[in-house]
Amino acid sequence: MALVYATLMTAGAALGLRIVGRRIGGSGLLLLLSTLFMITLALYPFPDRATFTCVPDEVHTQFQPFHFLPAFTRLIENGAPFSAWVTNLTVASTIMNYLVCMVIGLALAGVTGRWLLAAGFAATLTLGIELTQITGNWGLYPCPYRLFDVDDLIMNFAGVMTGFALWRGGRALREARGQPAGGREQAPRHSPDPRDRPS
């Protein structure tokens, strides 16, 4: 459902821009879609406010960096099958969020080539999501229904910057081989031969 909502919102934004005479490129659309998907994934499903209740002494924060690593270590040491990795909530959510953020970084690199701007976008996105969670969607709920996790800050930021770096590195490699960013090989340029000039 998160992807459905993100797709509908992206389509609505693109249509709105088209109505006012503006267009958004492919990288911009992918950036908008992946960002909205990440936000929706972090907040959806929304609890029913009429029946939502706060649990006393429930933990809503996790401030230990790389708290997820023991879950990975146990699976590796036990030689766990693929199904165990997929069904482990900590492992699955960490990997999925990282991959989604990599897509965001790849799309972001198609919009801007500035590292500082990319880092600022990544930090704002990840911190904004976590603050929304810890504040109960900015006061919409009397208490948080999701966990504020410092690991999410670290891994999501790293995911965006990894995707950004991969795209930038790939572009630099293509340019070094004489190809433009789009991947098409540039035709070699030759100096005109004086003998070809009309007499």
From TrEMBL:
Coiled-coil zones: none
Lineage: superkingdom: Bacteria
UniProt region (Disordered), positions on chain: 176-199
Entry's transmembrane regions: 28-46, 82-108, 115-133, 153-170
Keywords linked to the UniProt accession: Membrane, Transmembrane, Transmembrane helix
Biased composition (Basic and acidic residues): 186-199
Alphabetical list of Pfam families matching this protein: VanZ
UniProt domain VanZ-like: residue ranges: 32-168
Matches recorded under PANTHER family: INTEGRAL MEMBRANE PROTEIN, MEMBRANE PROTEIN-RELATED
Protein's name in the database: VanZ-like domain-containing protein
Species, as recorded: Haematobacter genomosp. 1
